[in-house]
Amino acid sequence: MVKKYDFLVVGGGIAGISFALKAVKHGSVALLCKSTLEESNTSYAQGGIATVMYPPDNIDKHIEDTLIAGDGHCSLEAVEQVVGKARQEIDQLLNWGVDFDREENSDRFDLHKEGGHSEFRILHHKDNTGFEIQKSLNEKVRNHPGIDVFEHFFAIEILTQHHMGEIVTRQTPFIECYGVYALDQKSNHILTFLSKVTVLATGGIGSVYLASTNPPIATGDGIAMVHRARGIILDMEFVQFHPTALYTPNTERPVFLITEAIRGYGAVLRDRKGREFMQKYDERGSLAPRDIVARAIDNEMKIYGDDFEYLDVTHKNPDETKEHFPMIYEKCLEYGIDITKDYIPIRPTQHYICGGIAVDLNGEASIQRLYAIGECSRTGLHGANRLASNSLIEAIVYAEAAVNHAAKRINDLQFNEDIPAWDDEGTSLTEEMVLIVQSFREVEQIMSTYVGIVRSNLRLQRAMSRLEILYRETESLFQRSVVSREICELRNVISVAYLIIKQAIARKESRGLHYTVDFPRKMD
């Protein structure tokens, strides 16, 4: 079956839905979501969304903070674009019904301050900002008559000249995207979605690691599809580990995040003996940028053989703490921890990928007619380390940029009717689900063991050797199997893991989130 839309959006978080809502006035829109709209990385974002609101803050300060956190690897043009256009996109979210907290008896927004920020500029809704944004956007997109939402549709491949029998390499000029093949998970049929413009908003890569704050759907699908289609992928070595995820004896998925805003509120990091330690690593103490804090905690754990360290908010007003962080308070109570009286056990956990599909200031990838926005993209905003709460605003600013660019040429583009239907001749249903599950676990183990916060050439080479075996086994199984979401996700996490390792090996320095003992750098 073939479906045709002017705009095809893959992914249902803030990036994908924002694009769909903005693009629908220019043409027909389909939005594909491999689970439901409620299950996205956006929903799990606690802290907030960074925007300059009131003096003494200003745009120059936000730009400088972003550049410092990015450790000399940001694109200045991308930073200026996002920071400069952030306020107008906040107004758009407000118009869509998003509710941000305000100061008591005032119209002024209540702003948080987070690590790496020089001013209070984080808009938030309690400690579940992402959930509030997702809820409002879901209501808008579900009720829009011009947008067709396809839940439980898994994008398998983006369509290019390759699918018409042409040989496509990374040197092929003008690779074009004509849509996607997508698996209807309810009927197990594979549909062809043809589009004039395709937008990937597929989120993060957390499932590549054993423990992550991302939901299990974060398998790097968009990045992997573009890599297979010979598109450009950059900066995958910059994997962000959030410093403060809740430590529990049995790892949950996703791991529960203790938002950075709680440190802006006044919480301090302590070791297992109750001693503050961040001053040893950075003069900003517990409010240093994430890469520095995560490495410091990791170092403390290794020095003393600890499984976790502590976050202490017991010195703050208990009623205020419960008012500002109700979700964290309730979650910790489930484990017998009253955060107004007890230290919170924390440890760093994979949280975000700063690299991804390389895009320009319009959000367009190296493949023509293809855009990437949100966490799956590499805009250059984050550089070597994302500044806290810059990701949600990046997603919606680039959604606006991509719509503006695509809308100008949508009427000049045509559907490619020569794309053949999916060919599964010679394949059979695999009875070897245990192989897929075991291979998935091996990828998680390899990445968590060898490609974590601190790396070395030896660890990276060992990870690559192990991964190559899994790649060969999985490709062989894929070629002879009927397509399933499980085997596609396994292929994708292997591709993503390969890109992280390969680009980490290529970087002969410690910078930002990539820290290697072979090219040490003072933790400053």
Biggest β-sheet strands, sense, barrel: 7 strands, mixed
CATH superfamily of the largest domain: FAD/NAD(P)-binding domain
Q: Helix proportion of residues, in percent?
A: 25-40%
CATH C-level name of the largest domain: Alpha Beta
Q: What is the first-to-last residue Cα distance?
A: 57 Å
**Corresponding CATH architecture of the largest domain:** 3-Layer(bba) Sandwich
Structural topology:
Elements: E1 2-10, H1 14-23, E2 29-33, E3 49-50, H2 59-69, H3 76-95, E4 122-123, H4 129-142, E5 147-151, E6 153-159, E7 179-184, E8 189-200, H5 221-228, E9 233-234, E10 239-246, H6 261-265, E11 268-270, H7 290-304, E12 309-312, H8 318-324, H9 326-334, E13 344-353, E14 356-358, E15 370-372, E16 377-378, H10 391-407, H11 433-450, E17 454-455, H12 457-480, H13 485-506, E18 515-516
Parallel strand pairs: 1-2, 1-8, 2-5, 8-15, 14-16, 17-18
Antiparallel strand pairs: 3-4, 6-7, 7-8, 9-14, 10-13, 11-12, 12-13
Helix pairs in contact: 1-4, 1-10, 2-3, 3-10, 5-13, 11-12, 11-13, 12-13
